[in-house]
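Help wanted!
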Amino acid sequence: MVLKIDKNKCLSCAGCVSICPKDALTLKNMVLEVDENKCIECAICTRFCPVRALRLTTNL
Amino acid sequence: MEQKYDIIIIGAGPSGTVTGKLCASKGLKVLILEKRPEIGAPKRCAEGLGKPDLERIGYTGKERFVTQKIDGGILITPNGGTIDLPPGPGGYILERKVFDKFLAYDAAKAGAKIYTKAHVFDLIRVGGKIAGVRLMYNGEQKDVYCKIVVAADGVESKIARIAGLPSGNTPNTIESGYQYEMANIDIADPHKLYTYLGNEIAPRGYIWIFPKGSHIANVGIGIGNCNEKTAKYYLDKWIAGNPGMSKGSIIEENSGGIPIGGFLESMTTDNFLAIGDAAHQVNPLHGGGLAEVSFSAQIAVDVINDAIKSGDTSNSALDKYNKLWWEKRGKNLKKIEKIVHMLEKVTDSELNMAQSSLSGQDIIDLTEGKTHKLIRIMLKNPRLATLVKYLK
Ligand SMILES: Cc1cc2nc3c(=O)[nH]c(=O)nc-3n(C[C@H](O)[C@H](O)[C@H](O)COP(=O)(O)OP(=O)(O)OC[C@H]3O[C@@H](n4cnc5c(N)ncnc54)[C@H](O)[C@@H]3O)c2cc1C
Ligand code: SF4
Ligand code: SF4
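Answered by r_m:
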């Protein structure tokens, strides 16, 4: 699975960044990025996001 | 950008700029690095601040970042009952974008050097000890050295983790916050803060209306993290059910993580300390972090100044910041954290009982960690009595 970020929904609030146990998320130039090498697909961030901008999905 | 400073502060939010201003006024050479292109935007805040807290950082309330005076509040229980919260010394709703810039102007005026679009991504170590920061500025990597690094990088803080402090963030210690700034809504009294409780409207949290004018307000929600539905879902549903709200227009959308506890035993290491949201210095009951900055910045600056002047910036010298903060703020905030976790176990019908048994002043006391009265009331009710243990 991979973490997909819906850039149209994301508000760059950094909540998911703070809560990711693997430090896999970063806001760069106010745009959210995921480091797929760090992400362990735990879904903590997808449950947190106040606007559901994050999704773990199998289809690329 | 010069290569050597006494202090490098990462983040130009209120904790970074207030600390920067106070350090610079002591004659220290200060660099503040902010990764955003604009300080203060976007806001992640309902913008409420008490009068004494604003005065503690040197402002009068007459500055142009104040949008509305507040003199008390109304707490609404799940059955629609209300409890009037006394005005106390009063407070303000700010315009954070202007406020944060004001703080930056004053830090710069005091002598701190500030850069925006300066993203710190690593700490430099010399002989294993922190000696500076590595950043991207204008597309170029730069190394800048200093005696003490201050992490004021907010809820998303990575720097404290790089320094080796535990993050303290878990789904249990970060609430999910979501807010609209709304115009043309009906507000019964635009000088009061409104707080709506209820597990149906805001599970393990609450909805707020913080007025910025007679028909303008920040309307938001903070909820615990174990919900099927999002914070946005709950807020939209509540607004749709309130004609005085749903007729309004949304002029800004914000979201954010609100730390509710998870305080760090130690916020320092050799040549390093963390402050503000980065160190979880937030009141876990109402999510207010600005008032905490007004206390912690002063504590930090006195310790930093002594450390630099004495030439000892080791963890044992900076540990005084931990001791003082825990004594002056932490102890109480920890009590408040317990109240929050106890409240998570209270049902809506029990919340309704608050209206007949608690006064507005009792509620204010709770937000300050005073639980005596609450415990007395809880002990009279067999089920609530079983929850008293969570407050101890
Ligand atoms: C929805 C919501 C409502 C709130 N309402 C209130 C309220 O009504 N009253 C109140 O008192 N508090 C409120 N708070 C809390 C308050 O907003 C925070 O406590 C306050 O902003 C914390 O200030 P800070 O300086 O510690 O962090 P921030 O204000 O978050 O500042 C941190 C800064 O560091 C920068 N930064 C981060 N990483 C880096 C890096 N690597 N390099 C360079 N810069 C970096 C960020 O861009 C940011 O500008 C609310 C929070 C939320 C989410
Ligand atoms: S929590 Fe959601 S809105 Fe906030 S930065 Fe993460 S993906 Fe974006
Ligand atoms: S799924 Fe887990 S590890 Fe991956 S980014 Fe989200 S919180 Fe981090």
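OP: Thanks! One thing I noticed: The mean pLDDT of chain A is 91.
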